Amino acid sequence: MKRVAVASLALLLGACATVPKGEVEDLKPAVRALYQSFRWKDFRGAAEMMVAERRDGFVKARTKMKDDQDLFITNFELEDAKLSADLLTAKVVARLSWYRLPSTTEKTVTISNVFVWREGVWQLESLDDGPFEELLPAPAPATKPDAGS
């Protein structure tokens, strides 16, 4: 009986220490769903697929820019998706074509997206180009020059 209790406790403690991790099979549909939301101007839906700290700023910027009327995503192609060794972060490369009125000149950019595995789903943390400036990565902290230089 004592062995069963010890084995059960060890199993329970091991289960608590296990962190669920993301998989590429879940990542690609999440990326496609996010970009489809961008394309069809479902900005509130897109915000729900982002990390919590980015959601409000994203929705406010879409309202301020009048993107429900003026932004047109014309094409999206997922080019590459790679998971980090710990399976909690992913770098996704995509091509995005878009224009924002009054301009009718289409821009096509290759975007690096960072997704993180949180709350059991992949969430967008940042992207490095495109029409959503508020989703750019935070700037790296400035380094101070060496005192001996």
Description:
By secondary structure, the protein is of the alpha+beta class. It has a single domain (22-130), classed as Nuclear Transport Factor 2, Chain: A (Roll), CATH 3.10.450. The chain contains five helices and four strands; from the N terminus they run H-H-H-H-H-E-E-E-E. It has a four-stranded antiparallel beta sheet with strand order 1-2-3-4. Strand 3 (107-118) and strand 4 (121-127) form a beta hairpin. The radius of gyration is 20 Å and the shape is globular.
How many strand elements? Answer: 4
Cα-atom Rg, whole angstroms?
20 Å
* Assembly form of the protein: single chain
- Spatially, the strands of the biggest sheet line up as 1-2-3-4
Order of helices and strands: HHHHHEEEE
Instruction: Name the average pLDDT.
Output: 86
Percent in strands: 25-35%
CATH architecture term: Roll
**Largest β-sheet summary:** 4 strands, antiparallel
Structural class: alpha+beta
CATH topology grouping? Nuclear Transport Factor 2, Chain: A
CATH class: Alpha Beta
Tally of individual domains: 1
**Helical amount:** 25-40%
Shape descriptor = globular
Catalogue the unreliable spans. Answer: 4-18
- Structure annotation, total helices: 5
Report the end-to-end length measured between terminal Cα atoms. Answer: 69 Å
